């Protein structure tokens, strides 16, 4: 059976990994064609190596890496570093690791931040599934200004 990895952090203020797990559990083939392997690490700087382990030791085909950069300026610098680590892990393993970051500063209202988080994690869980099983779904949306967590920007006028 194929394996899809989900890794999230204790630092995040939303249980992002469970949102991804629930989304994947609703996709066609769950439990038959693929299963989900879940890990949680302390913070987003720990995501890259955990994702690499999910790929190399747990044979995951694709990983969804969820993190929440805090609101301080230092956290933005750290987010950039964490993202670089995730990109390095993708290049080293040759597998997609979708970086799902929700910045605390994107939305000051806690309820709306949670909603944004649900939407972004859910959308990227579907994107991970499509990368693996339905690349034509991505191709259909080429150049359509698709976003995760907020309204789509839409295409520019032709
Ligand atoms: O490796 C242990 C920690 O360094 C690691 O877990 C960090 O990701 C923790 N962390 C910070 O040290 C920090 O300054 C995090 C943030 N900011 C942050 O904004 N979000 C995190 N972790 O998930
Ligand atoms: O791995 C999943 C996403 O992290 C990845 O697809 C990013 O490239 C998506 N993305 C951002 O997260 C972002 O903050 C993009 C932009 N900005 C951007 O400006 N242009 C993009 N993607 O193509
Ligand atoms: O234009 C508003 C947003 O699209 C823009 O601020 C993005 O950079 C927001 N964003 C992130 O900050 C991020 O870390 C996005 C993603 N990840 C993402 O994966 N997908 C997005 N936006 O559409």
Give a description of the structure.
Its EC number is 2.5.1.9. It comes from Streptomyces cinnabarinus. This is Riboflavin synthase. The chain has 158 residues and is an alpha/beta fold. The protein has a single domain, classed as Lumazine/riboflavin synthase (Rossmann fold), CATH 3.40.50. The chain is built from five helices and four strands; from the N terminus they run E-H-E-H-E-H-E-H-H. It has helices at residues 16-25, 47-56, 73-93, 110-133, 135-140, and strands spanning 2-9, 34-41, 62-67, 97-101. It has a four-stranded parallel β-sheet with strand order 2-1-3-4, sandwiched between helices. Helix 1 packs across helix 4. The longest helix is centred in the last third of the chain and has 24 residues, at 110-133. It is globular, with a radius of gyration of 15 Å. The model has no long low-confidence stretch (mean pLDDT 97). The structure holds 6,7-dioxo-5H-8-ribitylaminolumazine (3 copies). One 6,7-dioxo-5H-8-ribitylaminolumazine binds at residues 101, 103, 120, 147-150.
List the helices and strands and how they pair.
Blueprint: E1 2-9, H1 16-25, E2 34-41, H2 47-56, E3 62-67, H3 73-93, E4 97-101, H4 110-133, H5 135-140
Parallel strand pairs: 1-2, 1-3, 3-4
Helix pairs in contact: 1-4, 2-3
Bound molecules: 6,7-dioxo-5H-8-ribitylaminolumazine (3 copies).
